[in-house]
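Residues pack. Consider this:
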Amino acid sequence: MLRDLVRYSRILEIVGDILKVRVPENGDNKTGRSKASVVRLGDLARLEDAEGETSLAQVIGIDRDVVSLQIFTGTKGVSTNATVKFLGHPMQATYSANILGRVFDGTGAPIDGGPDLSMDPKVDIGGPSVNPCERIVPKKLIRTDVPMIDVFNCLVESQKIPIFSVSGEPFNPFLARIGIQADADIVVFGGLGLIFDDYHTFRKTFEDAGVFSRTVMFINQASDPIVERLPVPDMALAVAERFAVEEGKRVLVLLTDMTAYADALKEVGISMERVPSNRGYMGDLYSQLARRYEKACDFAKGGSVTILTVTTMPGNDITHPVPDNTGYITEGQFYLHDGVIDPFGSLSRLKQNVIGKVTREDHGQIMNTMIRFYSGARDAQQKQAMAFDLSDFDRQLLKFGNLFRGRFMDIELTLPLEEALDLGWQTLAECFRPEQLLMKQELIDKYYPKELALPRVDTAKLAEAEEA
């Protein structure tokens, strides 16, 4: 093609990692043909400097005949003597069975020292989300063996849900545990601005657990150019979609940290002299996040893509633009703080699709009853802290609260769902009598462990003793 022979050398300016080049429009007004640009938004380009060094770039802006390019390796050492050649296609990711167990960087190149994959098939990244007519209603449970998720806020296939947390919390080890314990065929991991220790921890965790052979990793480290961070979610999701559609796989996509991704978007926007909207973030932050999260889908004629991310909240501020916008897009959140998943700050809007339908009949009653009693336990703790007199029921609640935190809230716990439900019945029986549970009698008759039941209190005698 003629495009392969054309290079453009009119470099107008270089700002940060953004380079602007003038590209004459095609067409000729004298012949009546309309003008059209030789490039499209999102196309790749190859930049060659005066010394012959090359690097990839992506078209991120077109203003008449001025094209803005985002240089993946940065603009250090690049001068206005460089030339640009447009490749005529968007950025692509390698997709084949050979990518399982491999690690790629932010440009899609292998970084694990494995065999060359340059001849393997490629897929375009960043395409549109799936036609709603090709989706089905989410109704399948993804087991994680984490009690605070499986029992109280189920993870459902095709769900998009973040982990809200703050710096210093163990959200990365927790995300790795979910990756190795989740009931999924393939795990696609995207690391955004990870320090080397975190990257090494993720990889070693997947290898030690024996799941690395069904894992694909796309890594942008903190030492890598920040612009290489932006394609990572798109490459991970493009590969996940292919596995789901073409091979019918149940794919779990893990991304950390989406706040680092949004910060990269902000930095690029500032370099392009765009007007910020809120705390320095661009006005299209919501759209940029939604384009990625909406890739989650349960395909009518294939598998599914489920997205679980980490979103850190600077200063534990839930109104920060990144978690604030994320909350409008996703189907709930897991709130991780003080090393535990908070049952009151967490929410799964799709859990009603599976609780009691694909899980055990007592699941919904156990979930609601335990949360009700734990809420009462927190109230009883406040009464105790302020030196108020406690009733016998308050003491029962305090006992339950201590047991609940130790048996369920620790994120290091690994417990299958059915065992967690049985443990819930055991915990209730150790603290409350059957008539105090306010649950369906048929469930109490079937699941309540009678051997642990507290002695029944004669309310009439108790009232007489109080009067005396």
Remarks:
- Residues 2-90 form a domain with the Thrombin, subunit H fold (CATH 2.40.10.170).
- The chain has twelve helices and 20 strands.
- The chain has a mean pLDDT of 88.
- The chain has three domains: 2-90, 93-353, 363-467.
